[in-house]
Each structure stands twice: as C-alpha cells, then as structure tokens.
C-alpha cells in the first residue's frame, strides 16, 4: 500500500495530538534499535488494539517522546532492509503475523520518521513474541495479564465451530501417518524456536495441544478434520468433512476425499491432469514450456478452502477440473474484506470464521495468517505467464476461486515474457483488461503511457508489441529472465553444498544469470526478493546479522 507524504504527515500530526496511549508508541530509535524490542512492542500493541476494538495500532520512530516533537531516525535507511523488518517480526511472533505496512515520512530533508502499522491481534488469537505475551500499562511495556489473555482467547471459542470438543473422541481416532506428517511440519515451522529433539520427545498429548489441535488433551473438530482416521468423519455429523474432485469434459470422473485432510489434499492434487504446456506457438514467438498448474498454488487453494469453509452449512468442498482451468468452491462468504485487497497484498485479516482451525493449520505450515497466500498464488500465475486467479460468488453462501491452466489473451502472456520487471499493480490491471473487466482511470493512464495497452475505454486491449530481442533467438534467451524457482534452486543447491553463504556469495552466484535488461541495482533487488521468499517459506535463515547476513538452510529444507 502506498500513501502520499501529505497523508502521512496528517496521520503523524493526529497521532502526536493524542500522544502515547495503549495503541500508539513513539521512539526516537537509531539504526541499532533492537529487533527484539520492536517485537515486544508489536505483541503489546497488537494485543491492546484487539482488546480495545481498534483495527490497528502504531509504532512510530523519529519522534522525541519528551518534547513531543519530530526529531529524526536513521533506523534502517535502506528501503529493502527496512521492509525486511516484516519478515523478522513474522518469524518471532506467534501466530506469524507482522506489520501491515511500514511507511517512511520526510517531514524535512533532515527529519525522517518511520511509521509501523500494527494490525490488531485476530479475534481469539493473542500475539506473542519469542514465546511471551506483552501488553501496555499506560506508556509502559508489561506482560499480558492472565485476565487479558483469557479475554482474547475466549472471543471466538464459544462460537467457533472448529474449536468445539468432540465428545467420546480419543487420540486413537487420529491417523498415525497424519500425526507423523504433522510432527514433521511442526518441526520445520518452528525450527528457529524449538529444537527438533525436544518436539519429538513430547508426549502425543503435549504435541497436539501445542499444535493447537486439541484443548487440554481433548479432541476438537479441527483435529478430526486434519488428522482424523477416515472412519472418524462420523464424529462431525451432520456436517460433512469431504472434498470432491470432479473432471468435466470429454472424460468424466469424480472422487471423494475425507479426513485426514492433512494427507487428502495431496491425494486430491494427484488426480489433477497437470501436463506441460507450450503456451506460445512456435511461429509467433519462441515457445515457453510451463506446467499447467503450480502444485503450490493448487495446495494453497485447497488449504484456504478447508480453513475458510463454513461447515455449519453442511456443504462439501468441490474442485472441478475443466480443460483449461480449476474451479474451487467452498461454503460461506468471503469473511474479512474483499478478494482484490488480498490479491494485491494490501490486506491482513482481522478475524477468521474458523479461528481455531486456522491456528492449527498455521502451526502445521499449511497456511499463513497474513493474507499472503492469495497474493502469492497470483504472483505465481504471473511468473508462469498465465492469467491471475479470480474470485466470485456464483450463488449465496458460496465462494468460488478459478485458477487458469491456459492462456486467455496471447498478447498478455507475450508481454509478461518480454517485461520481467513489471510492478504487480500493472500486472493486475493488465489481467483485468484481458478479461474485459473494469479498471481505474488512473491505471489506464499509467499503462497507456508505458505503451502496454491500446484502444479506448471500454474497448481496451493489451498491446501486441513484440520485443526486438525476439528477432535474435539467442539474444532473447539470454535476456529473458528465468523463473524464480530456477534461481531459488541455485541458491539452495549452493547452501546444501557449502553449508552457508554471505550476501556477496549469493550476489556472485545469481546476478550473472539475471536478465541483461536489468541494471545492477535492479539485480540486487531481485536477489534480495529471492532471499526474502526463501526466508518466508522457512527454507533458509540468517545466522549472521542484519548488516552482515550469513544464510543457511533450515533442517529438512529441500
């Protein structure tokens, strides 16, 4: 999300006018300000915002809290390093939530202010930092009291279908293979905070409680959904725990999948015909081969359906495979916000229909709770030169997601191949144009100036421009950026071989392979984004410092 400097100044003035309270904290904060202290304030402000019914709280650097005047902060002057604070806070918080936005404001050329937008803790989910819960007492940082902790935790348990205890259900009703996979996933998710040996030494009851699958050893509906034996589904009657795959076209087929959903999602994915496609014909442009569907996108979509299904409506999750697309349908409505906000990466959910189930799925690394999943699905589609995924509601109490497995407009795919550095906002707008959907006039003006669209509103179309590089196939191959997966594999292979790498090592490894169309600064940002992506996926971690990172593989990272 971008915000004009004038709007930021107005926001700062209003925060100073009300001064510090339980949901606003000012610090002068220099470059050496502790990330751990930031994490404590993040936990405290998020929890207090929840308790007071606010959507957000603010942590502000660059204001003198004695004189109540704007001073200056040199905290992380490099924009990429500043934004990396989000990743660090997410890694240390539980659940893994981070700043919604980090804004920089230049009040004067010598007076810089940084504003951290803190989302309120989701209903029913207090936020901890490194295992400890924090709160505010006036202007002071303190431990979150037991009363406040219980107040947050009780917000949804009584109304959350997934949190309800299943009478007569026992751990014997859980699938052993699913439990083993859950243990492996939990270990990977929490490798930076909990030793693997400690996790595997826990009694089963302890693990299930810590993974948010049980309550004080009692089996919940969430536990049956994710880990239950197939025959345990009857515990959830009259609410069906079922996913259905249906093939439509020349061939027709279907199959139903029940608990344990932790295993069933992969089983359903394996039914889908995921072939390699040449998305551009040879006589128009060099052919590009990609898989019809990205496995991670399909699993993310399935996991989202499970997490957000309204099980009280007694419907099943339906995955329809057509010739050129997959259609996912689940019962309920879009619960918090609108889909486009999540596609653009501008929204962090404040509440969840199945908060207990979401917490469990997050602890098992099935979903994230920041809303990144939908944004990442869209980015993956764009990187494979396919249309972005679409959300709609074909009928009351139904959410439908469409993932494309083919080209809608050849000009759109060709343009994404030619221009590998397009901002995602532009890709989103171009996608809407190819689908004949309306976009804002401001976006139209921007795309026209860049020569990316032609025609007049409402009859706009993606420009059919062809890069000159295509006249020389060898040059085209050299300059076309490869898929991020290729570069991330290079990084992972290097770390597996040499165990660790500095940023200089990674730059030397990757930059020489990047498009010649990018300058050195753009290549540096690209490498930084690749490292952030691997870090967010919990495949690597920084064993050094912010200024001198030393990257290493997570245990069991591929």
What is this structure's SSE topology?
Blueprint: H1 5-18, E1 24-27, H2 35-51, E2 56-61, E3 63-64, E4 69-70, H3 79-83, H4 85-92, E5 93-94, E6 101-108, E7 111-119, E8 128-129, E9 132-137, E10 140-143, H5 146-157, H6 176-189, H7 196-201, H8 204-210, E11 214-215, E12 218-219, H9 221-227, E13 243-247, E14 253-257, H10 261-269, E15 276-278, E16 289-291, H11 295-308, E17 317-321, E18 325-331, H12 339-343, H13 355-363, H14 372-383, E19 390-392, E20 398-404, H15 410-418, H16 424-434, H17 441-449, E21 453-456, E22 459-462, H18 473-479, H19 484-498, E23 500-502, H20 503-510, H21 520-536, E24 540-542, E25 550-553
Parallel strand pairs: 1-2, 13-17
Antiparallel strand pairs: 2-7, 3-4, 5-8, 6-7, 8-9, 9-10, 11-12, 13-14, 15-16, 17-18, 18-20, 19-20, 21-22, 23-25, 24-25
Helix pairs in contact: 2-4, 9-13, 10-11, 11-14
Unreliable stretches (pLDDT < 50, length at least 5) are 466-482
Report on the biggest sheet.
6 strands, mixed
CATH topology-level fold name of the largest domain = Heat Shock Protein 90
CATH structural class of the largest domain: Alpha Beta
Oligomer: single chain
What fraction strand? 15-25%
The helical percent reads 25-40%
Number of helices: 21
Q: How many individual domains?
A: 4
Notes on the structure:
The model is unreliable at 466-482 (pLDDT under 50). This protein has 558 residues and is an alpha+beta fold.
């Amino acid at each position: 999300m971008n915000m004009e400097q004038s709007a930021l100044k107005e926001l700062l003035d209003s925060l100073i006018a009300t001064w510090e309270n339980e949901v606003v904290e000012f610090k002068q904060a220099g470059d050496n300000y502790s990330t751990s202290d930031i994490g404590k304030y993040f936990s405290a402000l998020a929890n207090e915002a929840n308790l007071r019914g606010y959507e957000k709280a603010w942590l502000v650097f660059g204001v003198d809290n004695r004189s109540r005047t704007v001073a200056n902060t040199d905290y992380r002057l490099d924009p990429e390093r500043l934004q990396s604070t989000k990743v660090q806070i997410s890694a240390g918080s539980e659940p893994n939530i981070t700043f919604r936005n980090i804004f920089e404001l230049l009040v004067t050329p010598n007076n810089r202010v940084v504003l951290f937008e803190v989302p309120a803790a989701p209903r029913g989910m207090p936020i901890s930092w490194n295992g400890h819960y924090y709160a505010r007492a006036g202007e002071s940082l303190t431990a979150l009291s037991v009363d406040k902790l219980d107040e947050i935790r009780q917000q949804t348990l009584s109304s959350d279908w997934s949190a309800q205890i299943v009478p007569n259900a026992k751990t014997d009703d859980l699938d052993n293979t699913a439990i083993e996979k859950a243990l492996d996933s939990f270990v990977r998710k929490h490798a930076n905070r909990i030793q693997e040996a400690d996790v595997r030494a826990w009694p089963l009851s302890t693990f299930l409680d810590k993974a948010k699958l049980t309550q004080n050893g009692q089996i919940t509906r969430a536990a049956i959904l994710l880990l239950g034996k197939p025959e345990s589904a009857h515990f959830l009657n009259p609410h069906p725990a079922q996913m259905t795959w249906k093939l439509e076209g020349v061939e027709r087929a279907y199959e139903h999948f029940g608990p344990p959903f932790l295993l069933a999602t992969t089983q359903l994915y394996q039914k889908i015909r995921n072939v390699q496609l040449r998305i551009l014909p040879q006589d128009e442009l060099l052919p590009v081969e990609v898989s019809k569907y990205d496995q991670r996108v399909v699993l993310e979509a399935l996991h989202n359906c499970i997490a957000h299904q309204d099980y009280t409506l007694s419907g099943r999750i339906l995955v329809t495979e057509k010739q050129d697309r997959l259609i996912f349908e689940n019962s309920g409505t879009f619960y918090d916000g609108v889909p486009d906000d999540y596609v653009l990466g501008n929204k962090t959910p404040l509440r969840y229909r199945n908060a207990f189930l979401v917490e469990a799925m997050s602890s098992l690394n099935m979903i994230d709770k920041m809303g990144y999943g939908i944004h990442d699905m869209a980015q993956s589609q764009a990187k494979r030169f396919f249309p972005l995924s679409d959300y709609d509601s074909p009928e009351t109490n139904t959410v439908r997601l469409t993932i494309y497995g083919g080209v809608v407009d050849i000009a759109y795919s060709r343009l994404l191949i030619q221009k590998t550095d397009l901002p995602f906002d532009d890709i989103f707008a171009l996608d809407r144009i190819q689908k004949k959907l309306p976009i804002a006039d401001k976006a139209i003006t921007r795309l026209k100036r860049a020569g990316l669209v032609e025609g007049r509103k409402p009859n706009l179309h993606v420009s059919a421009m062809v890069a000159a590089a295509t006249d020389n196939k060898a040059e085209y191959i050299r300059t076309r950026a490869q898929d991020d997966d290729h570069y991330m594999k290079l990084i992972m292979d290097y770390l597996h071989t040499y165990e660790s790498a500095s940023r200089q090592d990674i730059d030397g490894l990757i930059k020489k392979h990047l498009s010649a169309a990018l300058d050195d600064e753009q290549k540096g940002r690209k490498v930084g984004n690749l490292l952030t992506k691997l870090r967010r996926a919990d495949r690597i971690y920084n064993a050094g410092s912010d200024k001198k990172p030393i990257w290493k593989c997570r245990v069991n990272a591929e």
